[in-house]
Amino acid sequence: MTVQLDDVSVHFGRTCALEGLSLTVAAGETVALLGPSGSGKSTALKAVAGFVRPSSGRIRLAGQDVTDLPPAKRGIGVVVQQYALFPHLRVADNVAFGLRAARKPKAEVVRRVAEMLAMVGMTSYAKRFPRELSGGQQQRVAIARALAIQPKVLLLDEPLAALDAQLRADMLGELQKLRREVPEVAIVYVTHDQSEALALADRIAVMRDARLVDIAPAAELYATPPSAFTASFLGGANLLPVESVGEDVKVAGHVLPGVRSTPGKELLCIRPHAIRLGSEGVPVRVIATQWRGSSNQLTCTVDGLPDVSVRIDLPADSDVPALGAQVSMVLPAEACSLVPS
Amino acid sequence: MVPPLLLIAVLVVYPLALVAVESAPAWGDVLGSVEFREALIRTVQIAVCSTIGCLVVGTFLAVVISFVPFPGARVVASLVDTMLALPSFLVALSFTFIYGTAGILRTGGFLTTPWAVVLAEITFYTPFVMRPLLAAMSRLPRAQLDVAASLGAGPWRVLRQVVLPEVRPAMVAGGSLTLLLTLNEFGIVLFLGAKGTTTLPMLVHTKGIVMFDYPAACAIAVVQIVLSLGLYALLRKALGGRRARLD
Amino acid sequence: MLVWTRPGKALTWIAFAVVFGVLVLAPFVVVIAAAFAGTWNGVLPSNPTAGHLQEALSGDELASLSVSLQTAFLGGLLAVAFGTWGALAAHGSRFGRVADALHHLPIAVPSVVVGLGLLVAFSRQPILLNGTKWIVVIAHLVLMVAFSYGTVAAALQRVDPSYADVAASLGASPARVLWQVRLPMLRPAIASAAGLSVALSMGEVGATIMVYPASWRTVPVSIFALSDRGQTFTAAAEALVLLTATVLVVFTVDRLRGRAVEQ
């Protein structure tokens, strides 16, 4: 089922939580809404779920306008941040909640609950109360509860935010597995964590200040970010101001071989790990070094660009220049892209 | 929305409005009477003294329970919670045995003075000050006190400069609630005050039930309502504390 | 963490014990002791007797207990129902502040004034209730509605709205969300509102004394009558009966809280 947002805005009094969002999520597709807090991503999800009413714009499910439909009539599965498992109901009753609301026959409820709990590996916890579960287990139950009603659309609002780092990595793997279990469901995944978005999403919609900044397939967005914000938010790219001299592009007075100038795009975007140290490049001065286990990260100032610092990731086994050393950085053309400032 | 509000409208707003209407013919007599003026002054005096007493005693007890804990401190704290639900006249009744002419202390005259009412109200309303204070103090990070002590601050300094500023909103909340409740207190005055101390609520009862002078009772009631609500609102505004709830 | 020396602590605790014992605890202990005392002319009561308690549990006084229990249950439970209803309706409504203020009115003004208002309002057409037990029940209902409303409204503030949202997204109708999610999650608050209402109702004296008919005399009114006639020991015994009954009732209601927890 296709989810379609058509110029959707949400205002709370004077504050604008979402401004003119247009977005389509196809059946079987995962779209991540990625952005810092206050970017409007959760509001967009709540609008699709029907928890908040758009001030303008329409929302369609499979082409049918549902903007005025209450959440109960939309048939969308929702997993919220703190999971909101009903504390007075056991795990099995939580999962059965939607089925009972739909007055499904008892036998079907029992069968479906067992099926869902088996899918998320929680069968042996059916009789527990939510407070007796760990964060990761609660999350699985929340997903089982949302999927029990066989939704065609699944909305996940920061499902991993409440978990600690190790568990988050494990659950990320489980979510990838889950995606394969429900191949036809359209998934909207709200997160502020770029690694979750990159791991799970087919397309990523980057949001900022209640607006959509960029939307593109994940790999494309990472490789050639269309905007400075997306470049730095997704993968922490370096942004360097450039001058155009004819067809050539100069950084701090040095021509970058192989990079073609584009009108209106005055920032060079390059990932920290793509920069190498060499003899013929832009001279920089090392002001900090940080060993990160798998890599060494240098922070450098660029001669002639007083307000800019550059982060460079060197392989862990490479020689690390001393603090204060003058080195030369090479910016390979294939790793460079130009974005508007 | 409608049925609960309708209930309040019929059972609270309508009667109070009628009280205001009924009071009209009695205003001149009531405002001019010495009895009324004395009761008004007495009511405010008793309420203010009791509230100050409750704040002093309640703060001391709450500080000890929270920061100088002893075995059984939690039991005491839950006992305090229970007392909130008990009727106030029990205190007044017990005073008959403690301070009465034939009682433990045999301070015969004391029972008939306003100070007996003040003492009884301090006894009964101290838990009302303690409850918000205990809650606020339990939220205060213990590390803050330890750090202050490690920086060389003695107990008094820690109390004055770390604890009290932090729990001030709770003190304001508890204090204004106590002031309101002591202005309105009836049970204690009924049991003790029949022996010499008259406050406004007591006067409402006397005029209304004993003398059947409804207009006068209504006029005094209106003064009482204005006094209670006005003082309470003023206090909340002036002290700028967080919104104190009545419950 | 505040007082670090042993003597300092000991001194603080002694001061605490004296202040708490004499000022807060003693009056309640004295009432209980007096209930069993034949005479009390010194520091300690003398001539222990169960006679006062017997008096307090017979005749008119026993009838008072029955009246108090009926009033407390009827008034208190109606109050909890209406208070909860009011709090749920006011929550998130445009009229929330008005509802808040109106519901707090009965406890912001003296109970005597609430009683006077009811007396004035219901001694005339169109609603004549003066002289019946219903005016007492209504007085209690009005006072306890305020407490119930406050307790439930405070709990509602703490409940995350996403529970109701999620329930709705699972296809539950508003009625189902109310009965199966919102109310069960409020159960602890509703139970403590019920306990508080019943307890406060059992001890209510201000409004009751304004409106009660001779046929419907609650325990506190009886205690006052006894104390006023100089029968202080019997008054103390009846106060003990009131305390015991209140604690029993509150304890029972507390049991009903069950396993549900607020989150």
Summarize this structure as a short list of keywords or feature phrases:
heterotrimer; A: 341 residues; alpha+beta; Rossmann fold; OB fold (Dihydrolipoamide Acetyltransferase, E2P); 4-stranded antiparallel β-sheet; C: 263 residues; 2 domains; two-stranded antiparallel sheet; 11 helices; 75% helix; disordered C terminus
Task: Give a concise summary.
The complex is a heterotrimer of chains A (341), B (247) and C (263). Chain B is 78% helix and 0% strand. Chain B is mainly alpha-helical.
Task: Supply the number of structural domains of chain A.
Answer: 2
State the fourth-level CATH superfamily of the largest domain in chain A.
P-loop containing nucleotide triphosphate hydrolases
Overall mean pLDDT score of chain B? 83
Strand content of chain A: 35-45%
Give the number of DSSP strands of chain A: 20
Most strands sheet of chain A: 6 strands, mixed
CATH architecture of chain B: Orthogonal Bundle
Rg estimate of chain A, integer Å: 24 Å
Mean pLDDT of chain A: 90
Order of helices and strands of chain B: HHHHHHHHHHH
**N- and C-termini, Cα separation of chain A:** 38 Å
Strand content of chain B: under 5%
Q: Given this structure, which CATH class of the largest domain in chain A is correct?
A: Alpha Beta
Number of strands of chain B: 0
Helical content of chain B (DSSP H or I, runs of 4+): over 70%
How many domains of chain B? The number is 1
What structural category do the secondary elements of chain A indicate?
Answer: alpha+beta
- Write down the Rg of chain B: 21 Å
| Overall morphology of chain B | globular
Secondary-structure element pattern of chain A, one letter each: EEEHEEEHHHEHEHEEHHEEEEEEEEEE
Unreliable stretches of chain B, pLDDT < 50, 5 or more residues?
A: 241-247
Helices, strands, pairings?
The complex is a heterotrimer of chains A (341), B (247) and C (263).
Chain A: E1 3-12, E2 15-25, E3 30-34, H1 41-49, E4 56-61, E5 64-65, E6 76-79, H2 91-101, H3 106-119, H4 135-148, E7 153-157, H5 165-181, E8 186-191, H6 194-200, E9 203-208, E10 211-217, H7 218-223, H8 228-233, E11 238-241, E12 243-245, E13 248-251, E14 254-255, E15 267-270, E16 276-291, E17 295-302, E18 305-315, E19 326-330, E20 337-339
Parallel strand pairs in A: 3-8, 3-9, 6-7, 7-8
Antiparallel strand pairs in A: 1-2, 1-4, 4-5, 9-10, 11-15, 12-13, 13-14, 15-20, 16-17, 16-19, 17-18
Helix pairs in contact in A: 2-3, 2-4, 3-4
Chain B: H1 2-22, H2 27-32, H3 34-67, H4 73-83, H5 89-99, H6 114-139, H7 142-150, H8 155-184, H9 187-193, H10 200-210, H11 214-239
Helix pairs in contact in B: 1-11, 3-6, 3-8, 4-6, 5-9, 6-8, 6-9, 7-8, 8-11, 10-11
Chain C: H1 6-35, E1 37-39, E2 46-48, H2 51-56, H3 59-90, H4 96-108, H5 111-121, H6 133-158, H7 162-169, H8 174-203, H9 206-211, H10 219-228, H11 232-255
Antiparallel strand pairs in C: 1-2
Helix pairs in contact in C: 1-11, 3-4, 3-6, 3-8, 4-6, 5-6, 6-8, 7-8, 8-11, 10-11
